Amino acid sequence: MADPSDPADPLALQVLPDPRELLADPGDVPDPVGDAARSPVPWVVRKHQDRVLLLLTKRCHLYCRYCFRRDHQPGATSDPDPEAWERALGWIREHAPREVILSGGDPLVVPVPRLLDTIDRLRPAVRVIRIHTRAPVTFPEAVTDALVAGLRARAPVWVVIHANHPRELSPEVDAALARLVDAGVPVLDQTVLLRGVNDDPDVLATLFEALVERRVMPYYLHVTDRVPGNAHLRVPIEEAIALHDAVRARLGGVALPKLVLDPPDGSGKVDAREALG
Ligand code: SF4
User: Fold this and answer.
1) Quick check: CB of 67 below 6 Å from ligand 1?
2) Among 1, 32, 209, 262, which is least packed, fewest CB within 10 Å?
Protein backbone atom coordinates (compact mmCIF):
# COMPACT_ATOMS: atom_id res chain seq x y z
CA MET A 1 0.00 0.00 0.00
CA ALA A 2 1.42 3.37 -1.05
CA ASP A 3 1.60 6.19 1.49
CA PRO A 4 0.13 9.21 -0.38
CA SER A 5 1.11 11.55 2.47
CA ASP A 6 4.80 10.86 1.82
CA PRO A 7 6.00 12.18 -1.55
CA ALA A 8 9.14 10.05 -1.26
CA ASP A 9 7.24 6.82 -0.65
CA PRO A 10 8.61 4.35 -3.24
CA LEU A 11 5.16 3.05 -4.10
CA ALA A 12 3.52 6.48 -4.29
CA LEU A 13 6.37 7.77 -6.49
CA GLN A 14 5.40 5.23 -9.14
CA VAL A 15 1.78 6.28 -9.46
CA LEU A 16 1.13 9.79 -8.14
CA PRO A 17 1.41 12.71 -10.63
CA ASP A 18 4.39 14.96 -10.06
CA PRO A 19 4.85 18.57 -11.27
CA ARG A 20 8.29 17.58 -12.58
CA GLU A 21 6.50 15.60 -15.31
CA LEU A 22 5.75 18.94 -17.00
CA LEU A 23 9.45 19.74 -17.44
CA ALA A 24 11.07 18.99 -20.80
CA ASP A 25 14.41 17.19 -20.62
CA PRO A 26 17.11 17.02 -23.32
CA GLY A 27 17.11 13.21 -22.95
CA ASP A 28 13.39 12.85 -23.77
CA VAL A 29 12.52 10.57 -26.69
CA PRO A 30 8.87 10.74 -27.94
CA ASP A 31 8.78 7.04 -28.96
CA PRO A 32 11.46 5.77 -26.56
CA VAL A 33 11.34 2.10 -27.56
CA GLY A 34 10.58 2.61 -31.26
CA ASP A 35 7.23 0.80 -31.34
CA ALA A 36 5.59 2.99 -33.99
CA ALA A 37 7.95 2.01 -36.79
CA ARG A 38 7.59 -1.68 -35.92
CA SER A 39 3.81 -1.91 -36.05
CA PRO A 40 2.70 -3.69 -39.26
CA VAL A 41 -1.00 -3.29 -38.33
CA PRO A 42 -2.62 -1.51 -35.38
CA TRP A 43 -2.30 -3.37 -32.05
CA VAL A 44 0.61 -5.50 -33.30
CA VAL A 45 4.33 -4.77 -32.79
CA ARG A 46 7.02 -6.93 -34.37
CA LYS A 47 10.65 -6.42 -33.39
CA HIS A 48 11.85 -10.00 -33.81
CA GLN A 49 11.37 -12.74 -36.38
CA ASP A 50 10.16 -15.34 -33.91
CA ARG A 51 7.92 -13.31 -31.59
CA VAL A 52 5.27 -10.63 -31.86
CA LEU A 53 3.55 -8.31 -29.40
CA LEU A 54 -0.27 -8.17 -29.44
CA LEU A 55 -1.81 -5.28 -27.50
CA LEU A 56 -5.22 -6.23 -26.10
CA THR A 57 -6.11 -2.87 -24.62
CA LYS A 58 -4.64 0.44 -23.57
CA ARG A 59 -6.25 0.26 -20.14
CA CYS A 60 -4.46 -0.61 -16.88
CA HIS A 61 -5.53 -1.09 -13.27
CA LEU A 62 -3.30 1.84 -12.41
CA TYR A 63 -1.15 4.12 -14.54
CA CYS A 64 2.57 4.10 -13.80
CA ARG A 65 4.13 7.53 -14.22
CA TYR A 66 7.25 6.16 -15.94
CA CYS A 67 5.42 4.01 -18.52
CA PHE A 68 6.69 4.24 -22.09
CA ARG A 69 3.19 3.71 -23.48
CA ARG A 70 2.17 7.29 -22.84
CA ASP A 71 -0.87 7.03 -25.12
CA HIS A 72 -2.15 4.24 -22.88
CA GLN A 73 -3.63 6.65 -20.42
CA PRO A 74 -7.22 7.50 -19.52
CA GLY A 75 -8.96 9.33 -22.33
CA ALA A 76 -7.01 7.66 -25.14
CA THR A 77 -8.68 5.14 -27.47
CA SER A 78 -8.69 2.25 -25.09
CA ASP A 79 -9.55 -0.93 -27.00
CA PRO A 80 -9.38 -2.21 -30.58
CA ASP A 81 -12.66 -2.06 -32.51
CA PRO A 82 -13.88 -5.39 -33.96
CA GLU A 83 -12.46 -4.67 -37.42
CA ALA A 84 -9.01 -3.72 -36.09
CA TRP A 85 -9.02 -6.75 -33.81
CA GLU A 86 -9.80 -9.18 -36.64
CA ARG A 87 -7.06 -7.57 -38.72
CA ALA A 88 -4.53 -7.94 -35.89
CA LEU A 89 -5.39 -11.60 -35.27
CA GLY A 90 -5.39 -12.32 -39.00
CA TRP A 91 -1.95 -10.76 -39.44
CA ILE A 92 -0.52 -12.87 -36.64
CA ARG A 93 -2.08 -16.10 -37.87
CA GLU A 94 -0.75 -15.43 -41.37
CA HIS A 95 2.81 -14.79 -40.15
CA ALA A 96 2.68 -17.50 -37.46
CA PRO A 97 5.47 -16.37 -35.11
CA ARG A 98 6.66 -18.98 -32.64
CA GLU A 99 5.64 -16.83 -29.68
CA VAL A 100 3.08 -14.07 -29.07
CA ILE A 101 3.34 -11.71 -26.14
CA LEU A 102 -0.04 -10.45 -24.94
CA SER A 103 0.47 -6.94 -23.63
CA GLY A 104 -1.22 -3.56 -23.42
CA GLY A 105 -2.06 -1.64 -21.30
CA ASP A 106 -2.61 -4.60 -19.06
CA PRO A 107 -4.06 -7.71 -20.71
CA LEU A 108 -5.67 -8.78 -17.42
CA VAL A 109 -7.93 -5.71 -17.59
CA VAL A 110 -9.98 -7.38 -20.30
CA PRO A 111 -12.59 -9.99 -19.31
CA VAL A 112 -11.18 -13.48 -18.83
CA PRO A 113 -13.31 -14.99 -21.64
CA ARG A 114 -11.89 -12.48 -24.13
CA LEU A 115 -8.33 -13.16 -22.99
CA LEU A 116 -8.78 -16.93 -23.29
CA ASP A 117 -10.59 -16.55 -26.62
CA THR A 118 -7.61 -14.55 -27.91
CA ILE A 119 -5.27 -17.41 -27.03
CA ASP A 120 -7.61 -19.94 -28.64
CA ARG A 121 -7.81 -17.92 -31.82
CA LEU A 122 -4.02 -17.67 -32.07
CA ARG A 123 -3.66 -21.42 -31.80
CA PRO A 124 -2.56 -23.57 -33.57
CA ALA A 125 -0.61 -20.97 -35.57
CA VAL A 126 1.17 -19.78 -32.43
CA ARG A 127 2.61 -22.30 -30.02
CA VAL A 128 3.89 -20.26 -27.07
CA ILE A 129 1.95 -17.44 -25.39
CA ARG A 130 3.45 -14.98 -22.95
CA ILE A 131 1.33 -12.56 -20.92
CA HIS A 132 2.99 -9.37 -19.74
CA THR A 133 0.94 -8.04 -16.85
CA ARG A 134 1.35 -5.89 -13.78
CA ALA A 135 -2.06 -7.03 -12.47
CA PRO A 136 -0.78 -9.76 -10.09
CA VAL A 137 1.03 -6.89 -8.29
CA THR A 138 -1.36 -3.96 -8.77
CA PHE A 139 -4.71 -5.78 -8.74
CA PRO A 140 -4.15 -9.37 -7.53
CA GLU A 141 -7.91 -9.99 -7.49
CA ALA A 142 -7.61 -10.25 -11.29
CA VAL A 143 -5.86 -13.61 -10.85
CA THR A 144 -9.12 -15.51 -10.49
CA ASP A 145 -9.63 -19.25 -10.38
CA ALA A 146 -11.23 -19.03 -13.84
CA LEU A 147 -8.19 -17.24 -15.24
CA VAL A 148 -5.72 -19.67 -13.68
CA ALA A 149 -7.66 -22.74 -14.86
CA GLY A 150 -7.94 -21.25 -18.34
CA LEU A 151 -4.20 -20.58 -18.59
CA ARG A 152 -3.37 -24.00 -17.24
CA ALA A 153 -5.60 -25.64 -19.85
CA ARG A 154 -3.87 -23.65 -22.60
CA ALA A 155 -0.22 -24.40 -21.74
CA PRO A 156 2.37 -23.39 -22.75
CA VAL A 157 1.42 -19.97 -21.39
CA TRP A 158 4.00 -17.94 -19.47
CA VAL A 159 3.16 -15.02 -17.22
CA VAL A 160 5.65 -12.15 -16.82
CA ILE A 161 4.80 -9.86 -13.92
CA HIS A 162 6.27 -6.43 -13.17
CA ALA A 163 7.37 -5.69 -9.59
CA ASN A 164 9.63 -2.78 -8.62
CA HIS A 165 9.84 -2.81 -4.83
CA PRO A 166 9.69 -5.51 -2.12
CA ARG A 167 6.83 -3.67 -0.40
CA GLU A 168 4.66 -4.42 -3.42
CA LEU A 169 4.67 -8.10 -2.41
CA SER A 170 1.67 -7.97 -0.06
CA PRO A 171 -0.10 -11.11 1.22
CA GLU A 172 -2.71 -10.66 -1.54
CA VAL A 173 0.04 -10.51 -4.18
CA ASP A 174 1.72 -13.57 -2.66
CA ALA A 175 -1.56 -15.47 -2.90
CA ALA A 176 -2.08 -14.46 -6.53
CA LEU A 177 1.43 -15.58 -7.47
CA ALA A 178 0.96 -18.86 -5.61
CA ARG A 179 -2.29 -19.52 -7.50
CA LEU A 180 -0.43 -19.22 -10.79
CA VAL A 181 2.64 -21.20 -9.81
CA ASP A 182 0.68 -23.94 -8.05
CA ALA A 183 -1.28 -24.41 -11.28
CA GLY A 184 1.97 -24.97 -13.18
CA VAL A 185 1.99 -21.59 -14.92
CA PRO A 186 5.62 -20.40 -15.15
CA VAL A 187 6.03 -16.88 -13.76
CA LEU A 188 8.89 -14.45 -14.47
CA ASP A 189 9.39 -10.86 -13.33
CA GLN A 190 10.50 -7.65 -14.99
CA THR A 191 11.66 -4.75 -12.87
CA VAL A 192 12.17 -1.16 -14.01
CA LEU A 193 15.00 0.76 -12.39
CA LEU A 194 13.52 3.96 -10.93
CA ARG A 195 15.12 6.86 -9.08
CA GLY A 196 13.90 6.98 -5.47
CA VAL A 197 12.05 3.67 -5.82
CA ASN A 198 14.67 0.95 -6.24
CA ASP A 199 17.99 2.64 -7.13
CA ASP A 200 19.59 0.87 -4.18
CA PRO A 201 21.33 -2.53 -4.21
CA ASP A 202 19.71 -3.51 -0.90
CA VAL A 203 16.21 -2.83 -2.23
CA LEU A 204 16.89 -4.67 -5.48
CA ALA A 205 18.51 -7.69 -3.80
CA THR A 206 15.65 -7.91 -1.29
CA LEU A 207 13.11 -7.77 -4.10
CA PHE A 208 14.82 -10.44 -6.21
CA GLU A 209 15.33 -12.78 -3.25
CA ALA A 210 11.68 -12.33 -2.25
CA LEU A 211 10.54 -13.16 -5.78
CA VAL A 212 12.61 -16.34 -5.89
CA GLU A 213 11.12 -17.38 -2.54
CA ARG A 214 7.72 -17.00 -4.20
CA ARG A 215 8.93 -19.17 -7.10
CA VAL A 216 9.05 -16.21 -9.49
CA MET A 217 12.23 -15.83 -11.52
CA PRO A 218 13.67 -12.30 -11.89
CA TYR A 219 14.07 -12.05 -15.67
CA TYR A 220 14.89 -8.49 -16.69
CA LEU A 221 16.05 -5.36 -14.86
CA HIS A 222 15.27 -2.50 -17.25
CA VAL A 223 17.19 0.71 -17.61
CA THR A 224 14.45 3.38 -17.50
CA ASP A 225 13.07 4.32 -20.92
CA ARG A 226 13.50 8.01 -21.76
CA VAL A 227 9.82 8.89 -21.77
CA PRO A 228 8.97 12.62 -21.89
CA GLY A 229 7.89 13.48 -18.35
CA ASN A 230 9.79 10.78 -16.47
CA ALA A 231 13.27 12.37 -16.32
CA HIS A 232 13.06 12.67 -12.51
CA LEU A 233 12.62 8.88 -12.27
CA ARG A 234 15.39 7.84 -14.70
CA VAL A 235 18.59 6.14 -13.61
CA PRO A 236 21.45 6.72 -16.11
CA ILE A 237 22.89 3.65 -17.77
CA GLU A 238 26.32 3.94 -16.10
CA GLU A 239 24.65 4.03 -12.67
CA ALA A 240 22.35 1.16 -13.67
CA ILE A 241 25.39 -0.99 -14.49
CA ALA A 242 27.02 -0.10 -11.15
CA LEU A 243 23.82 -1.04 -9.31
CA HIS A 244 23.57 -4.32 -11.21
CA ASP A 245 27.22 -5.07 -10.39
CA ALA A 246 26.50 -4.45 -6.70
CA VAL A 247 23.51 -6.80 -6.79
CA ARG A 248 25.52 -9.39 -8.74
CA ALA A 249 28.11 -9.41 -5.96
CA ARG A 250 25.37 -10.61 -3.60
CA LEU A 251 23.08 -12.70 -5.79
CA GLY A 252 23.55 -15.24 -8.51
CA GLY A 253 21.75 -18.04 -10.30
CA VAL A 254 18.03 -17.56 -10.79
CA ALA A 255 17.92 -14.55 -8.45
CA LEU A 256 19.93 -12.26 -10.76
CA PRO A 257 18.02 -10.71 -13.70
CA LYS A 258 19.68 -9.51 -16.89
CA LEU A 259 20.23 -5.77 -17.12
CA VAL A 260 18.69 -4.62 -20.40
CA LEU A 261 17.53 -1.54 -22.23
CA ASP A 262 15.08 -1.05 -25.07
CA PRO A 263 16.65 1.39 -27.56
CA PRO A 264 14.60 4.01 -29.46
CA ASP A 265 15.49 2.48 -32.84
CA GLY A 266 12.93 -0.27 -32.19
CA SER A 267 15.46 -3.10 -32.52
CA GLY A 268 14.33 -4.65 -29.22
CA LYS A 269 15.96 -5.26 -25.83
CA VAL A 270 19.74 -5.45 -25.65
CA ASP A 271 22.25 -6.10 -22.89
CA ALA A 272 22.83 -2.71 -21.24
CA ARG A 273 26.60 -3.23 -21.01
CA GLU A 274 26.83 -3.98 -24.72
CA ALA A 275 24.70 -0.93 -25.53
CA LEU A 276 27.16 1.26 -23.64
CA GLY A 277 30.00 -0.25 -25.68
S1 SF4 B 1 0.71 -1.35 -15.74
FE2 SF4 B 1 2.29 -1.58 -17.33
S3 SF4 B 1 1.36 -0.76 -19.21
FE4 SF4 B 1 0.12 -0.03 -17.48
S5 SF4 B 1 0.95 1.98 -16.95
FE6 SF4 B 1 2.02 0.47 -15.64
S7 SF4 B 1 3.89 -0.08 -16.80
FE8 SF4 B 1 2.47 0.93 -18.24
Assistant:
1) yes
2) 1
